[in-house]
């Protein structure tokens, strides 16, 4: 079997890292070959997608696997996305991993919009049902789709997807790079000797919960510092990063916050080794590399009780959870973890257990089974999953 993997590539993308780990594990399986075809992010010309389709539709490709995130195609606004320009050109069996399954309303941040004219424009857009379907339904019902959580599957089924073609497959936990100095190099670099570190890992984004953490920081012991281990992923995220820096400067706790910027793998290892507790106080998430990395390193993690994190705990109780958005509840749990070495040790042990059970080699085996199913689904004698439940696509 040969897979055409259509994905972002490079060091500064969590989905690219996710895909590379999957590809590495797939290539270790018998009779499995993978060709990576890079996604050029943003809306591209028709000629660009014709060239991509020519490669993915080649005779030697058995199945195409698309890593889907709306920003890869130019965003969700009408006229901005080129996803369908690409999708209609693909004739091979197609598997899609849905990294975002939010509703159109959620992606527009309609409920929190305070600018009257902007809110009105969003309201009008949300009345365009064809556009709404093209964003939150159609990409996922025109492929055999992988999601990371049961909640995401139920969201898609609730919008009309056939549950037979939606597979729940959690993100694999990557192998780790050794921290050769046990975190001491990281501490020296940022002047953190003698401090306990609480760390939020990953690219800075509005859903990561930094603002909540800044609110509780004054109530933590003076020997505790906050490390924001990351920076903006691309130019589009720089305005939020600048906003976050301003929030830190005005918080009165600037002396207790370290923002590292992008860290290569070796420095991530040192940052994890130096951390006492890793935080994932996300306000929105359908899964997060910000959690799988600390689990891979066997760290005690405190996360908001979003569905994707509750599902991790449902598999193995390797996360401590607090009520999402609740500063007081987060403070209570964080104080407990900082002061209870036994509880941290239990979470660390369970994190390592989770990392072993959901390693990439195991996830790759399950993914290959989904490819085999997709090839059968797209065979002429089998129904194609091209339409909503109850409507037959062409045979």
From TrEMBL:
Highest taxon of the lineage: Bacteria
Ranges where the Glycosyl transferase family domain occurs: 187-352
Tagged with keyword Transmembrane: no
SUPFAM superfamilies: UDP-Glycosyltransferase/glycogen phosphorylase
Statement: the UniProt record of this protein carries the keyword Oxidoreductase: no
Keyword entries, A-Z: Transferase
GO biological process, one term: lipopolysaccharide biosynthetic process
Molecular function per GO: glycosyltransferase activity
PANTHER family: GLYCOSYLTRANSFERASE WBBK-RELATED
Name the record gives this protein: Glycosyltransferase
Organism whose genome encodes this protein: Chthonomonas calidirosea (strain DSM 23976 / ICMP 18418 / T49)
């Amino acid at each position: 079997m040969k897979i055409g993997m259509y994905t972002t590539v490079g060091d500064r993308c969590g989905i690219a890292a996710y895909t590379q780990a999957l590809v590495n594990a797939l290539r270790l399986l018998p009779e499995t070959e993978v060709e990576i075809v890079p996604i050029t992010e943003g809306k591209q010309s028709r000629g660009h997608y014709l060239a991509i389709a020519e490669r993915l539709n080649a005779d030697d490709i058995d199945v195409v696997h698309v890593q889907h995130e709306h920003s890869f195609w130019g965003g969700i606004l009408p006229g901005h996305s080129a996803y369908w320009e690409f999708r209609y050109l693909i004739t091979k069996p197609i598997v899609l991993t849905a990294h975002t399954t939010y509703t159109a309303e959620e992606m527009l941040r309609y409920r929190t919009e305070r600018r009257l004219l902007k809110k009105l424009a969003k309201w009008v857009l949300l009345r365009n049902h064809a556009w709404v379907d093209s964003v939150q339904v159609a990409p996922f019902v025109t492929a055999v789709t992988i999601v990371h959580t049961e909640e995401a599957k139920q969201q898609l089924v609730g919008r009309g997807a056939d549950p037979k073609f939606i597979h729940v497959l959690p993100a694999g936990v990557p192998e780790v790079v050794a921290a050769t100095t046990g975190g001491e190099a990281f501490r020296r670099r940022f002047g953190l000797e003698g401090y306990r570190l609480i760390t939020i890992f990953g690219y800075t984004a509005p859903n990561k919960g930094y603002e909540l953490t800044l609110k509780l920081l004054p109530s933590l012991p003076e020997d505790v510092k906050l490390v924001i281990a990351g920076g903006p992923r691309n130019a589009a995220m720089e305005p939020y990063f600048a906003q976050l820096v301003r929030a830190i400067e005005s918080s009165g706790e600037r002396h207790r916050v370290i923002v590292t910027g992008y860290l290569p793998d070796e420095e991530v290892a040192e940052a994890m080794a130096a951390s006492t507790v890793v935080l994932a106080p996300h306000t929105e998430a359908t899964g997060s590399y910000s959690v799988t990395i600390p689990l891979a390193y066997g760290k005690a993690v405190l996360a908001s009780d979003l569905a994707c994190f509750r599902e991790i705990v449902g598999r193995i109780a390797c996360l401590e959870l607090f009520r999402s958005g609740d500063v007081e509840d987060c403070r209570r749990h964080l104080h407990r973890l900082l002061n209870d070495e036994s509880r941290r040790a239990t979470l660390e042990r369970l994190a390592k257990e989770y990392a072993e059970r959901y390693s990439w080699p195991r996830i790759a085996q399950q993914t290959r089974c989904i490819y085999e199913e997709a090839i059968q689904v797209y065979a002429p004698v089998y129904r194609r999953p091209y339409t909503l439940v109850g409507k037959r696509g062409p045979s």
